[in-house]
Specification:
- It contains three helices and no strands.
Length: 76
């Protein structure tokens, strides 16, 4: 969560800096380009999270630990 908030603050800071230095570009065009960049970043972050989840749960399956073996109920 801290990384996400830090990324948000960095993106807002970069956007404010870029807005001041945009030159002759109109505000609507700048905001449209910034929106596309923000959406691409969000999709990339979601994809990375999904790939990490798939890797940890399906490819690199956790082994049965001693604790899970002890707490496992015996169904007769």
């Amino acid at each position: 969560m801290v990384i996400g908030i830090g990324g948000l603050l960095a993106a807002c800071g970069y956007g404010a800096y870029s807005y001041k230095r945009r030159g002759a570009m109109s505000t609507s065009v700048f905001l449209m380009q910034f929106r596309v960049i923000a959406q691409g970043t969000a999709v990339g972050a979601l994809t990375a999270g999904m790939l990490y989840h798939i890797y940890t749960n399906y490819i690199n399956k956790p082994k049965n630990s001693a604790i899970s073996a002890i707490t496992k109920t015996n169904d007769h």
